[in-house]
Amino acid sequence: MTAQIFIAIFGVAAVALSQSKLKARRRWACIFGLIGQPFWFYAAWQGQQWGIFVLSFIYTASWLHGLWNYWLAPSTSSSNDKDAIESKLKLDDGWKSRLLDGSPLELDNLGCGVHPALPSFDESVNGEQFFSLFGLELKAATAQSEIKADAEDSVICHSFAKDGANYNAWSPTKPCGDGWSLVAIFNTEDGPTAWWLREKPVAIQAKQGSA
Q1: pTM higher than the cut 0.70
Q2: Which helix (H) or strand (E) segment is 96 a member of?
Q3: DSSP state of 164
Q4: Who has greater pLDDT, 23 or 109?
Q5: How many CA atoms lie within 13 A of 174 on its CB side?
């Protein structure tokens, strides 16, 4: 009975994590899956369920494959190499200036929008590290973190609840400091999220000093 309880706990957790949109959560699926495997073997052996016993070896191999891919495999140089990224995304010399030109986003009917100069990369690339390679500072803000329980914001909360994924009622707050440009508003598991970018303060000071 105890084995079945642990099978349920770790099995459900592994399956749920494997379906997450976020890589940071998906990578934990194999860990929970592997923790649950000894209980699968024990329960199958005790119940003389030899088919399940054999399948447990297959499940274990699958979770071990995930362990290698998400935790043990060496990272490729292209994820952190500036030249490789520029080549892969076909970034020209002026993309950074266009990205920080302060142009307002063209939002769709759901309130989402992306600056046309924002590079399109997959979720395996860490946004903060990516932009840092090019001397840019990224700040991410969520509507949930900015909305407070006052009268005005309660209207915004009501709009989210009523319209579902419609985020037009949210106006992201610019971070402290100078030079920030709003480059994206998009949906995540944590709700509507905004990306702000600016040149790193050191780069700004260097530019001002050379002027």
Answers
A1: no
A2: helix 95-99
A3: S
A4: 109
A5: 9
